[in-house]
Amino acid sequence: MDAPEPAQTPFTAVTAQTSKLARQYQTLLDKSTPYTAYRWIGTVALLFLFFLRIILSQGWYIVAYTLAIYLLNLFLAFLQPKFDPSLTQDEGLEDGDMGSTLPTKQDDEFRPFIRRLPEFKFWHSATRAIIIAFVCSWFSFFDIPVFWPVLVMYWLILFFLTMRRQIQHMIKYRYVPFTIGKTRYGRS
Q1: Separation between Cα atoms, residue 100 and residue 114, nearest integer Å
Q2: Quick one: DSSP state of residue 119?
Q3: Which of 45, 85, 128, 146 is 20 to 30 Å from 22 at the Cα level?
Q4: Considering the entire predicted model, what is its pTM?
Q5: Within a 10 A sphere around the Cβ of 39, how many other Cβ atoms?
Q6: What is the DSSP secondary-structure string of 78-118?
Q7: Cα 184 from Cα 175, distance rounded (Å)
């Protein structure tokens, strides 16, 4: 004897369609993973179109400022190690179960740099934020009148102070989050 099929409700139909779209979206993301340069070129092109929209329309400065703050936050998470050595030292967890940490002394063993925010998630979050900001720039209730030079100056000050602190942290704990300039050993 076969079990009766569950009744088709509008909710189950919508759930089936959204899960199908989510699978297709994930498939596209999976296929785009190896094409790092093309992904970032597309994101920069989107960002250029967004800022062109902001400049030509002379509005939505709050949306642009919010996007810039969010992208700065993502960039900082991209630069930082997953396990912060300053927190480990402050809490006295030198040999704790925090996972791999960065070497802080010359004779420490090598441990690979693991980012707090991986490159793919950084790209995905940044692209999604730019698209959301672009969509927001087409609705007039997001166009809050502000004096934009103040926002630009505040963001620049915030950027330089934050980056100075991050660079000092990188120098103090001797880690470089980029592979440029690192020793590469040839294949034998």
Answers
A1: 8
A2: H
A3: 45
A4: 0.75
A5: 19
A6: HHSBSS-HHHHHHHT-TTSSS------STTSPP----BSS-
A7: 16
pLDDT tens-digit series, residues 24-81: 999 999 999 999 999 999 999 999 999 999 999 999 999 999 999 999 999 999 988 8
Nearest to 80 by CA among 179, 170, 174: 170
One-letter amino acid at 112 equals P
At 78, the amino acid letter reads F
* Tokens at 180, concatenated: 């440029």
The residue written with tokens 């396990």 in the block is 83
61-79 helix and 119-136 helix, angle to the nearest 10 degrees: 180
If you ran DSSP here, which 8-state letter would residue 141 be given? Answer: G
Tell me, rounded to whole angstroms, the distance of Cα 168 from its chain centroid.
21
Assess contact for 172 and 89: CB atoms under 8 A: no
